[in-house]
Amino acid sequence: MTETPPHSSNDEVEVTGPFVRGGIVARLRAKGRGHGELLTGSSVLVLGAAVQGFGGMAFSILVSKLDLKSDFGDASALFTSVLFVTFLAGLGLPVSLARYAADRDSDSHVIFTWGMLATIPASIIASAAYLALVDPGAADVLWDWSPVGGFLLFATIVCGSAFSLIVDVRAMTMRRWNLVLFRICLVGIAKIALLPLFRDADHRSLLIFLYLAGPVAVSGFVGVALINRTTGGHHRLTPKPETTQAVVRYSGVNYLSTLAYQAPYFALPVIVLKHVDSQTNGSFYVAWGIVAIAFYVPSAIGQALLAEGGKGGAHVRLQMRLAMTLAVGLMTIGAAATFVGKGLVVAVFDESYREAAHILPAMMLAGIPWAVTSLLLTEARVLHRHVATVIITVVLMVSIIVPALILVPGDEPGHGLDGASASWVLGNIFAAAVALGVTVVNRRYSSGHEATDELDPLAPVE
């Protein structure tokens, strides 16, 4: 990557605080364009994660006061299933669109349109496969309402949720971070506003599920319809971009790596819901809701880095150092906060959610190695290191899912939710260690222009 010339002294902005005198922010300002957008994008996405976190917590608290825990457990299990199937239906598009549909030109619009169309059959097929093969007990909520209508409702929500992911990426590449935050806020408000409606309905579990998942899906459909007002073009299928083969290849590699990378994030809740009752799953969902939002922070920062890292003038090494500092620092603060405040879970909900308070601190502690793994994976993707990408993601998947399949089933001590927590923590620590090792080897043997952009968040900047 080519580094842009430093700004003249007349253009530099004085920076005060802990990063003065050659610190990260000061050097980023001196290195050219894109770095301010990385800071802005990361900040907005972290704020969005906070909004999601508070909104999700408010929703869970309100449910605990209005509804039976078993109804919430079934609805949250079905919502967990939607998240899992949505990631299956993603086809690697959130990553590939960030790299190949990052502009306002014709090629970007064509690539986005084809990605949007591919999402539709992928959502239907993934939904059918999941409901047939996994057959979660919570799916009875759908079948009791309508066998055909239940499936169509589930698949439609999956499709809309998948749309919301690629719309967010398109807005990020346009540097319209405000649109991403606006969508997140609207979804959070809609969930809470809908919850008090139809409390005495016969299919209350289904309604709670719709209140959880519906606003996200609707935002995806609306986003697809309106995104071109931001990109300044329109959906089109031709002409065929010269980068088509590269897009397909990059999507394929990153689809497999994304499946492996996100598999623990989405599969662990599915493993839990398959082996515990609805009430226990309700406790797990409360803890997991907090963990999932917190763990989104490193992923969001990585997405911002991916969107900015490939743009002209980007100095990826400094961007990586800043991203790593932000991600690890925020996850450390979050882990410390949950250790101190875990008792608030029982105080806010009730005694039946004590299991959530028990597993929460350890699961949040895993966020520190998760941040390391996430950012090192982004480095591999920015530099097109496909072997490193596959190794990191496969190790992450295996080191969490395999122990979970062993430790979650059963009623013995150390199993159930304790087994899920142990698998999550130990698996993330091992995966981070492997990611560091793979990255060190890649940096050592890099050559040519890539070596000048080596991403070392620990070494001093020369």
List keywords for this structure.
single chain, 462 residues, mainly alpha, 19 helices, 76% helix, globular, disordered C terminus
Structural features, described:
Mean pLDDT is about 75; it is low at about 1-35 and about 450-460. The chain is built from 19 helices and no strands. The chain has about 450 residues and is an all-alpha fold. It has helices at about 25-30, 35-65, 70-90, 95-100, 105-135, 140-145, 145-175, 175-195, 205-225, 230, 245-275, 280-310, 315-340, 345-350, 355-365, 365-380, 385-405, 415-445, 450. About 75% of the residues lie in helices and about 0% in strands. The longest helix is centred in the N-terminal third of the chain and has 32 residues, at about 35-65. Helix 2 packs antiparallel against helix 12 (about 280-310), helix 5 (about 105-135) runs antiparallel to helix 7 and helix 11 (about 245-275) packs parallel to helix 17. The protein has one domain (about 25-450).
SSE order and pairing:
Blueprint: H1 24-30, H2 35-66, H3 69-88, H4 93-100, H5 106-133, H6 140-145, H7 147-173, H8 177-194, H9 204-226, H10 228-231, H11 244-275, H12 278-309, H13 316-341, H14 343-348, H15 354-365, H16 367-382, H17 386-407, H18 417-444, H19 449-452
Helix pairs in contact: 1-13, 2-8, 2-12, 3-5, 3-7, 3-9, 3-11, 3-12, 4-7, 4-11, 5-7, 7-9, 8-9, 11-12, 11-17, 12-13, 12-15, 12-16, 13-15, 13-16, 15-18, 16-17, 16-18, 17-18
